[in-house]
Structures are given as C-alpha cells and as structure tokens.
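[agent] plan:
  1. take the single chain provided in the ticket
  2. run structure prediction with default settings
  3. attach structure tokens to the ticket
  4. add a short note for the reviewer (M.T.)
[agent] executing step 1
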Amino acid sequence: MQRTALLTDGSSESGMTLIELTIVMFVMAIVLVIAASGLLSLSRTATRSDAMINDEQQASTVLSQVSRDIRSAHQVTFAGFASPVPTEQIELQMNQPAGTWVEWIYAPSAVTVNGVSQPADSLARYVATSSTGPFKLSAPSVTTPVNVANGTGTPVFQYFQGNGSEITQLGLLNPSSLQTCATRISVTLDVSTQKKLPAVSNFQITDDIAITDQEAQWGTLPCS
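[agent] step 2 finished; step 3 output follows
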C-alpha cells in the first residue's frame, strides 16, 4: 500500500511539470512572434526610408541643376520649340558658357525629343549652340529617374514678372511674353517613389529662382 501511494505521488508531480513546460513554451512562442513582427516592421520602415531618401536625393540633384541654369541665364526663350508648352518646357539663353542654349523638357508620357527617346514622367536637360538647335542631351546627361508625377495638372514651370504677379497663363497664350517679361521662375517636381511600397506617398520639392539679367532690365521693358 505504501509503494502504491509513493508511485501515485510521483506520477502527479510529473504531470504538473509537463503542464508548466507546455505553458512556458507557449509563452515563448508568443514572445518570438512579437519579436519577429517587430523586426519585420523595422525592416520595412528602413526600406521605405531608404527608398524615400534615394528619391529625394536624385530629385534634388536635378532641381539644383535647373535652378543653376535659370540663375545663370540671360533670358527665357522658346525659339527651339515648334509648339511650346511653357509649363512643361523651358529654353534658356545662357550667360555662361556664352553661346549656349539649354532646354529642360518634362515628358508626362513617353515621347521622342530632339531625336532622343525620353521616357514618361521624366525631366531631361538638352543643350545647343543655337537658339533653334539642334539640341542634344547634355554631357554628362542630367535627367530624373522615371518618377516625376506632375502630369498635366501640376505645372513644372511657373512664371512671374517684376511686380510679383504670375504670368504663366499669359504665356500659354503668347509664349513670347514670357521671354520679354519673366523675371522669376518657380520650379516644382511632384515625385512619386520608384518603389511602390505601402505608406510611401508622393512628395514635392520646389525652388523659386530669379533671372538676374531680366530683373535688371525689367524697368525698361514693356511689362506691367
């Protein structure tokens, strides 16, 4: 009788240990799932941040070049365009280097520009030694990745005259008025991230640049 009692007691203690072990393993499994979820979330956040930083750097590089060109320009021209769209295209007569003309062209859809296949949603820089061309891609080439999402709804270029008023709409009807009157140009790039990841939205960068030569002459020009 005594032996039976001892065996029964030992069996009971063994059963309790197994239950406790099961509970511990269950809790550990929950902790591991939570930890894995946290690491995955951190990884996704890092990927999104890297994608955003990369796109911002590339777009900023292009915007900086546009700004330098406008700041160094003698005036705006549209001589190299058969049908200029001033909100998407701009031609600049440069002071330095002398005898150089620069075109910036935004393509909302794929198009052949100056004999070059320019992809949709890109902004590219072309140069020539004449206002009417022929223009070719600048060397080194400066072009955005395929990620500029302005479309036809957000102007890449907006024009202002000496008294501060915007004359973009006037220029759409008569581009030569921009050549005569524009003293300041606002450049806006609406950038769509190249990696289509959840929670990574478009972002916008912009700059407002004065055409120094045109500003100096504005007082004698027929603008109001």
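[agent] step 4 note for reviewer: Residues 42-220 form one domain.
[agent] ticket updated
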